[in-house]
Amino acid sequence: MRIGELARRTGVSERSLRYYEAQGILKADRTPGGHRDYPEGAVDRVIRIQEFYAAGLCSSKIAELLPCVRDADGGPSAIATPRLVDDLTLERDRIDRRIDELRRSREVLDDVITTAAGGSADED
């Protein structure tokens, strides 16, 4: 599929897809005319890349991680190194801390909303 179709199917801009390719985290063949030609599996790959970015991973860490991830079309092609596992554990811990912070923020907002609505914060 061409880059425009991949962009439409994933909701990711063509510019981002080109960036992913430059970073080595997305691969495309080239047509005789020089256009990018992505396999069907690129849709799942782009969605996975977006998930990793949303989790706060940088492109170099994503490039290191992707070969260790089970794709829809089969198993991983590499085993995560102990260093990568340590790095990812730290990332997961960071995400867990952020989730806790967001939960606390939501509780504060719930209290403000309840108070503003004329109720008490204990009426849940």
UniProtKB/TrEMBL annotation:
Where does the record place the HTH merR-type domain? Answer: 1-68
Matching InterPro entries: DNA-bd_dom_put_sf, MerR-type_HTH_dom, MerR_fam
Q: What GO molecular function terms would the record report?
A: DNA binding; DNA-binding transcription factor activity
Q: Where is the signal peptide?
A: none
Q: Does the keyword Cell inner membrane apply?
A: no
**Stored SMART domains:** HTH_MERR
Keyword line: DNA-binding
Classification via SUPFAM superfamilies? Putative DNA-binding domain
Top-rank taxon of the source lineage equals: Bacteria
The protein's matches in Pfam families, at most eight in alphabetical order, are given as:
MerR
| PANTHER family listed in its UniProt record | MERR FAMILY REGULATORY PROTEIN (PTHR30204:SF97), REDOX-CYCLING DRUG-SENSING TRANSCRIPTIONAL ACTIVATOR SOXR (PTHR30204)
Q: What is this protein called?
A: Transcriptional regulator, MerR family
The organism that produces this protein has a lineage beginning with: Bacteria, Bacillati, Actinomycetota, Actinomycetes, Kitasatosporales
